[in-house]
Amino acid sequence: MRHFLNLSDAGPDGIAAMLADALDRKAARIGWPKGKPDADAPLAGRVLAMVFEKNSTRTRFSFDGAMRQLGGDTIISDASQMQLGRGESVADTARILSGYCDAIMIRTDDHAKIEEMAAYASVPVINGLTDASHPCQIMADLLTIIEAGKALPGLKVAWLGDGNNVLASIVEAASLMRFDVVAACPQGFQPEAAAIVRASGRARVVADPAEAIAGADVVVTDTWISMGQAHAETKLKALMPYQVTSQLMMCAKPDAVFLHCLPAHRGEEVAADVIDGPQSLIWAEAANRLHAQKSVLRWCFGQIG
Ligand code: CP
Ligand code: NVA
Questions:
Q1: Is the pLDDT score of 244 beyond 90?
Q2: Ligand 2 atom 7: the closest Cα is on which residue?
Q3: Rounded to an integer, what distance in angstroms lies between the CA atom of residue 48 and that of residue 41?
Q4: What's the whole-model pTM score?
Q5: Does residue 173 share a domain with residue 100?
Q6: Which end of the chain is more exposed for a tag (fewer CB within 10 A), N or C?
Q7: How confident is the model at residue 231 (pLDDT cuts 50, 70, 90)?
Q8: What is the atom index within ligand 2 of the atom nearest the CA of 222?
């Protein structure tokens, strides 16, 4: 059984295989209508359950589109409309959905729930974001970085802002794919120290945004207030010096690219002239969610890697 709860579930070889598969499959359907299945329709007859405890645009549409392109189908529900939303256990839900569907994608507010889902499901479980990580997003980010002509080993990635779930997956990717991350986060909003330790020297946290971004190949940020977090003025104030501005971008390499998982808050974590400027790859990054996830799905079904 292949669950995709974190990037380490696939490991470096699995990740490399998924990225190669995504590049190939994307190239094979250039110019095709989005709803047309791939020629080999490798997931024909398979159905993916998609459960959302939190809002989503990209994850919802890209997984649904991915399954269609792979020749499969989806059943999508908000957790609030399921018995899960009124107290049925995650374990029971896992066993029930396993009887109807060939895989389960869930977005949840608590990483422990996805671990419980995986423990009780008899089909693959995929992390569509938890409070702790967002591995599908980082698969799309890695694909976008490679498409930009940058090799992963030796790359320098700078993160500016909140030490959140997206950063946790970037840190995990760094140790698996042998690139370096320097995260600039204010006191109180730094990533979990254990996650930095697990990255075995590939990640470090600094206080100064200029230090983090100096010489970076890739600059990444994310919302300062993640879903489920209170909108705290004190947090916004602490993070203000970490806004990705065009001035800070000048400290990165001249050919550095900017990534953001979206949704974005222009004027908070990033200045409008950066996110809408020539170094920003956000639209390619968002579109790549679909291509990367097709390969995540194929990996979960044991078709690659
Ligand atoms: N980046 C991302 O996961 O977007 P959604 O919240 O819209 O799915
Ligand atoms: N860190 C954000 C990512 C949204 C895609 C959140 O968890 O809300």
A1: yes
A2: 226
A3: 15
A4: 0.98
A5: no
A6: N
A7: confident
A8: 1
